[in-house]
Design a protein that fits this description.
This protein is mainly alpha-helical. About 70% of the residues lie in helices and about 0% in strands.
Length: about 160
Amino acid sequence: MTTAEYNTCVDQHADGVFRFILKNMRDEDEARDIVQDAFEKMWRNVDKIEGAKSKSYLFTTAYHTMIDRIRKKKHTSEYTEVNEDSLFHSEQYSDLKQILNKAINLLPDKQKAALTLRDYEGYSYEEIGKITGMSESQVKVYIYRARLFLKEYIGSMEKVI
């Protein structure tokens, strides 16, 4: 990969990688750090990366960096009891995007990553598998379970509208 290809990659994919990481981390500063780390790792390996595969490399690196940060945080954070009733939405509300974002934030990390890569970033099941290190069938299962949870969380459209 040349310097020009690297710069083009930064211009074309920085926003998409940031959106993906932010959707999963829910912390802008943390998301910016992860994206910056991903681009730094990409720069250090610029001689080993083909220009055509730069987007996939970038998302894969960002995903693995995010997972490392999440694991590191889990070792230092406290676990809290969650009331199962608080996980479901039952009141009438009209801002579907806010409800959907709240529901997505309740998903387990792997489901959230697979779902956002598929539905927000438009990756194929195979590409998501390469990025996350899961098999294609695992990706499909995680996306199915995430969508099922979202459907149950949101409930019927009459409650939302």
